Amino acid sequence: MEAQNQEVAILVEKISGLHAAISKLPSLSPSPEVDTLFTELVAMCVPSSPVDVTKLSPEAQEMREELICLCSTAEGHLEAHYSDILTASDSPLDDLHRFPYYENYVNLSKLEHGLLARHATAAPARVAFIGSGPLPLSSLFLAMNHLRGARFDNYDRCGVANGRARRLVGVVADEDVCSRMAFRTADITDLAAAELGAYDVVFLAALVGVASGEKATAIAHLGRHMADGAALVVRSAHGARAFLYPVVELDDVRRGGFEVLAVHHPTGDEVFNSFIVARKIPHTEISTYAAPAISG
1-296 belongs to which homologous superfamily? Predict the structure, then answer.
C-alpha cells in the first residue's frame, strides 16, 4: 500500500508540473510547445494507474478541474486546426489519419458500437451526438462504418465549430453519409422532448460539461426528455485518464432515470475514454438494478 501511495504521489506531482507549464502558455492553439506538453500529459495519463481522483487532496482536485478545462480548450483548438487542414486537402478522406488521435476515434467508435449492439433490440434509426465539435470523427466513423442506416444529428453549442464540421463532412463523406449527417447549434439543456424524444440513441461526448456538476446536470436533463427505452452512451474516464476528462458517476446515470447496462474501461492505449451504455427507464417500469458488466 505504501508503494502504491508513493506511486500516486509521484504521478500527481508530475501532472501538477505539467499543469503549471500549460497554464503559463500564452495560447493553447497548436504549436511545438503546446503539442509537446499535451503529448507528454497524455503519455503520463494513459498507462494503468492506481490513482483514485476522488481521494485527492483539495489542492489536487482543484488542479485536476483546471487541467480538464485546459484540455477541453486545447482539444477544441486542435480539432479546429485539423478540420481546416483536412477540408483544404486534395484527398481529405485519405488524409484523415494525419489527425494525431485518428486511431483513437476509429477504435472508440468500434468499441462503443459493439457494446451498444449487444444490448439493442434493433438497429437505431435516429442518433444524436452531443458535443460533436469541429472535427466530428466519432459520428462520422459510426455513420460510415457501423450504423449505415441511421440519421445523425450532431449538436454543438458553437456555430463556428458546426460550420467547420459541416464543411469537412461535405468533402470527406459520400452522398449517402452526407445526407444522413446534420449539424445543429444548441445547448443540450435547451433541447426538450420534441427533439430528444426522437432519438433511439444519444451519445454524450467526453468534454460536454467539464465544469463540476455539469455532466450530472446534462444526464438528468436527458433523462427527463429522452424516449423510454432509448439508449445513452456516455464517455467517461478512469484512473489517471481522469486528469484529462471528467468522470461520470454511475449513480448520476441512475439518478438521471437510466438503467446502466454496461461499462467499459480501456486497457493499454487502445482508446482514451471509458464509456457507459445505459437505457432510459420507462416511467411506469419498476426497475431493480443489477451490477453492470464492466470490461477492461
Answer: Vaccinia Virus protein VP39 (3.40.50.150)
